[in-house]
Amino acid sequence: MTKAEKLKSALKETKERRKTQIAKTFCLKLQNLSKTKEEKLLRAFLEAKWLYNWVINQENVFEIDGSKVKKVKVKVGESFEERELTALGSQVMQEIVDRIKDNIKGLAKLKEKGKRAGRLKPKKRVNSIPFKQYGVSYRIDFKKNRIHLQKLGSFRVLGLNQIPPSAELSKAVLVRKPSGYYIYITCFVPKEERTTLEKPVAIDFGVKDRLTLSNGIKIDFEIPESKRLKRLQRELAKKKKGSKNREKTRQKLAREYERIENRRKDAINKIIAFLKLYSMVVFQQDSISSWHKGWFSRAVQYSGIGKLRERLSSSLLPVLEIDRFEPTSRVCCECGAYFENLKLSDRTVFCPECGNQIDRDLNACLVMLRKVSPALRVVGLDRPKLTPAERSASARILGSNPYIRVSYLVEAGSSSSY
After folding, report:
1. Longest dimension (CA), the chain
2. Which residue, 151, 217, 242, 415, is most buried by CB atoms nearer than 10 A?
3. Does the pLDDT value for residue 373 go beyond 70?
């Protein structure tokens, strides 16, 4: 069997194996960094920036072989000086160049679709370095809790116990954050059967109540700017540009931004974990960006509701999106009557046709379920009820985050909460 045939056969086997696997990414933190190791990491990120800025300024980008680049020209003041690349391995440099090529192709596709797209610009900082192949560009010693990165050496890491023994390791990415250095490892693990509540759920996004579910659960979450963040912003404005004190304050400010972002991510992860219990998630394609530009910009920014909707669309959850122009709040969930004079301030709707009085957002959720399919029709007595299993699951998953507030609609106009 020739080399080409062996590669083709191995690729076919991998594709078949991937059908029974799912990709997961695990975050590990580099610990106990000595001064020498930290200098190596800083040098690696600096060289990654040099290589990136040099490649995007070349005319023949798609002809460049990143693994063979030894020296690059770096702009120093008004002139260019030649710098030698010593901290990056050949495979790492090749992957950085491949990233640039993929980005250029992505911009070209956007231009073909008629969208405005510029060109790649030089970067002041590069905060991620790819390590493509396990066993070559990086290796892991699970017994000693260590990871070896090509040309950078061995590092002690925290979090290896997250990776299951059955995981098949793939690519890794070294990331620099204000709180330290992290390595994100993508693994393929066997698919597990998901235990669901065997019922669909519809979500109505809002500003007053961030999420309203069709079973009567209201979820509100908001992570505002901290007092420390505002104080550091004032301190940074008073520091002299280019000074060491300004750089120290900038690093503290970046660390505080990271803390707030981590809190928002945790809240979103908890909500996604709760929604995974349902067999299907239905929501409307609301324009969150227009809310952000309007009067509700601060509320949208603090909650990260746009990121939550994006995660729902791109996650492995079985989701179904309804067109944003479909009427939901203005239609009665019981008889289908249309409300002509419904205002944004009306939080409870009353149908003069059938006498139905219900919370506005809950009504929209029930209308969404009815629009999806006749099989999911939820009018009259078939309206979904909040079960004890859902109540206990929401308390267990969402209640562990102090920034998430959950309330349960008892009847129109009233609710219970914790």
Report:
1. 79
2. 217
3. no
